[in-house]
Amino acid sequence: MRGSATVITSTQAPRRTRIQVEKRELILEAALEVFSTNGFRGSTIDQIAEAAGMSKPNLLYYFRRKEDIHETLMERLLETWLAPLRELDDIGDPMTELRSYIRRKLEMARDFPRESRLFANEILQGAPRIMPLLAGELKTLVDEKAAVIKGWMRAGKIARTDPWHLIFAIWATTQHYADFDVQVRAVLGPNRGGDGRFEDAARFLEQLFLDGLKPNG
């Protein structure tokens, strides 16, 4: 009796070559610049192709639609943006953990201003392309870390406050230095508007938040 042949199929996507990986990264870097400057609606495939130094047909070989490029960038952005919050450790000293979080967020404002503007543009449009991520992964993480902060409050390690609004306030004050960088530098002037502005901001925000969170008595 002859055995029946076994057909083996794979659902895995084929591995990309080094050149394909490099081309995708080139496109994403160009798209980040275009999207963060013009917003999603004001950006076109032609603009991204020009910024990447390639033809439109060549770009479309790697990404079929503008939406696919934007989605890839937003997924990467959220993964990077949420990493500092994920590291907030419930067994650590609250003041040390919060100081580190503030510092990390300011470092990201300094090092990833285009990503911050890309995210802000999406939110200002009503988050039409990332609402499932905001209502799902982001909400779950924030709720989890709010519970950590509540635990510190119950233990008397920090003053009682609303943990969700505390997280929002840290987001707002740190990301301001990315989203409104031109304004910050203009107002601070040439003597204070250099790279030292981030260290000045860190010291101020540490004082603002951590002094306000010291437990009573």
Automatic annotation (TrEMBL):
Presence of the UniProt keyword Signal in the record = no
- Keyword rRNA processing on entry: no
Start and end of every HTH tetR-type domain? 21-81
Whereabouts does the entry annotate DNA binding, in residue ranges? Answer: 44-63
Keywords for the protein's UniProt record, in alphabetical order: DNA-binding
Q: Which Gene3D superfamilies match?
A: Homeodomain-like, Tetracycline Repressor, domain 2
Q: Which Pfam families match?
A: TetR_C_3, TetR_N
Which PANTHER family does the annotation name? HTH-TYPE TRANSCRIPTIONAL REGULATOR RUTR (PTHR30055)
According to UniProt, the name of this protein is: TetR family transcriptional regulator C-terminal domain-containing protein
